[in-house]
From TrEMBL:
PANTHER family: 3-OXO-TETRONATE 4-PHOSPHATE DECARBOXYLASE-RELATED, FUCULOSE PHOSPHATE ALDOLASE
Organism encoding this protein: Butyricimonas virosa
Protein name: Class II aldolase/adducin family protein
Keywords: Lyase, Metal-binding
Superkingdom of the source species: Bacteria
Lineage of origin: Bacteria, Pseudomonadati, Bacteroidota, Bacteroidia, Bacteroidales
Keyword DNA repair: no
Name of a matching Pfam family: Aldolase_II
Domain Class II aldolase/adducin N-terminal, chain residue ranges per copy: 8-184
Length: 211
């Protein structure tokens, strides 16, 4: 049973992401695993001002809506990520300014590791071609990419990040945006950390894997 308090937590976090300027109007969607249920923003809702009555509750296994609120049209890939990634509890689809600029570039970066925060907090970014929003093809591609990545760039569309909790997802999204701002503002004249430098970072922090 999803409680009123859990819905309030979800709404507060949605507003927090909106205050961080990660989306405009209805451009994003958010989900949260609570046991075997998923809270997800309703279709057409605006995360920056999301009201409790626009939060859908779905069963993760069946995908069935349990409270009569129509979920975001991207809820299929949110469900798929939760089914495949037991370590993930929050998924955010967003369209921050500079990351979306990069998503629309003809020649996209092959490496986003412009600062140490990127390999540490964001990890390797999967870059997907354009698929129609809400389409089965988009959902399938995102679900597949998220099996091995925590951040995905959707060409001519936006971004998806996932994580263990709301803070990790916010951190991941903001550092992804920071990297793209550096890339854009440098006019594509930037350097990245070498593979050796990334490995040295990993070893110095005692991490088995850069997230």
């Amino acid at each position: 049973m999803i409680t009123k308090e859990q819905v309030e937590i979800f709404v507060t976090q949605a507003h927090r992401y909106g205050e961080a300027r990660l989306m405009l109007c209805s451009s994003g969607n958010l989900s949260w695993r609570v046991g075997d249920k998923m809270l997800v923003s309703g279709t057409g809702s605006w995360l920056p001002v999301l009201p409790p009555e626009k939060v859908a509750v779905c069963d993760i296994i069946s995908g069935q809506v349990e409270n009569g609120v129509r979920p975001s049209m991207e809820s299929v890939f949110h469900l798929g990520i939760f089914r495949n990634r037991p370590d993930v509890n929050v998924v955010l689809h967003f369209q921050s300014e500079y990351t979306t600029v990069v998503a629309c570039m003809k020649n996209k970066p092959l490496d986003f590791n412009v600062t140490l925060e990127v390999p540490y907090h964001v990890g390797e970014v999967a870059v997907l071609p354009y698929f129609r929003p809400g389409s089965p093809e988009l959902a399938e591609a995102v679900i597949e990419a998220m099996q091995e990545h925590d951040a995905v760039l959707l060409s001519n569309h936006g971004q998806v990040v996932c994580g263990r909790d709301f803070d990790e997802v916010l951190e991941r999204a903001l550092f992804f945006e920071m990297a793209c701002r550096i890339i854009v503002q440098s006019r594509m004249d930037y350097t990245v950390l070498s593979q050796k430098e990334v490995e040295d970072l990993r070893n110095s922090l005692g991490l088995a894997r850069i997230p």
